[in-house]
Amino acid sequence: MKIVIPARYASTRLPGKPLADIAGKPMIAHVWDRACEAAPMADVYIAADDDRILKAVKAFGGQGVMTRADHASGTDRIAEVADTFGWADDEIVVNVQGDEPLIPSALIALVGEGLAADGRADMATASTRITSTDDVLNPNIVKVVSDVFGYARYFSRSVIPYMRGADVPDVNKYAYQRHIGIYAYKVDTLKRLTALNPAEVEEIEALEQLRALHHGLTIRVAETSEAPPHGVDTEADLVAVRSLLGAGA
């Protein structure tokens, strides 16, 4: 199992986000540490698009790979890394987002090992139970519905399933699932996925994983109780993570 951490410098809301200081080291170093708890260091890579990120990675002893700056997604960036190293089609690659400094290493291993153990699945991801009505209604929290075999049937920013006859969804009557944005792919799946055209439903929901479902790929969903806090998208998120990691506000 390989782990690749896509790291893009030109974040719209937080430029230079991978290098944001948290407790005395760049955010990307915290993600690297978590990944190295889930796999041998030699199997963990940071896929960067800027020399400044590569210099920081080298400084803390990480393994950085320069990738093109024009990739539309982290999946495309990871596919370039797999191609660069010529990884076998059946190699499993876990995509750990570079703005998740608090991601549990056990979750990384759960997703990667879950895909390795499932000969039917093309990809794997994770979910956790939603216990707050506000979270179910929040379009920034993506929901997933899986079938009895544990495969994703749909992802949405809307409330799924819709609870007919109820003014608001009742989280005590149905175990709504929050999607956690971590993925494991077989290299062959990466090749297929990045060659596909975007699906209309993917563009409507702004959810890249819907491309895979639209084209018939199977996504195993591992439910976990050890859900990570939300990643760092805004300055407020960065302040919160700094506080949690003891760096103050």
CATH superfamily: Spore Coat Polysaccharide Biosynthesis Protein SpsA, Chain A
- For the record, the CATH architecture stands as Alpha-Beta Complex
Strand content is: 15-25%
Q: How many DSSP H or I helices?
A: 9
CATH class: Alpha Beta
Description:
- The chain has nine helices and eleven strands.
- With 249 residues, the protein is an alpha/beta fold.
- The N and C termini lie far apart (36 Å).
- It is globular and about 55 Å long.
- Helix 1 packs across helix 4 and helix 3 packs across helix 6.
- The chain has a single domain (2-235), classed as Spore Coat Polysaccharide Biosynthesis Protein SpsA, Chain A.
- The mean pLDDT is 93.
- The strands form three sheets. It has a seven-stranded mixed sheet with strand order 5-4-1-6-10-7-11, with helices on both faces. It has a two-stranded antiparallel ribbon with strand order 2-3.
- Strand 2 (21-22) and strand 3 form a beta hairpin.
Identify the notable features of this structure and list them briefly:
single chain; 249 residues; alpha/beta; Spore Coat Polysaccharide Biosynthesis Protein SpsA, Chain A; seven-stranded mixed beta sheet; two-stranded antiparallel ribbon; 33% helix; globular
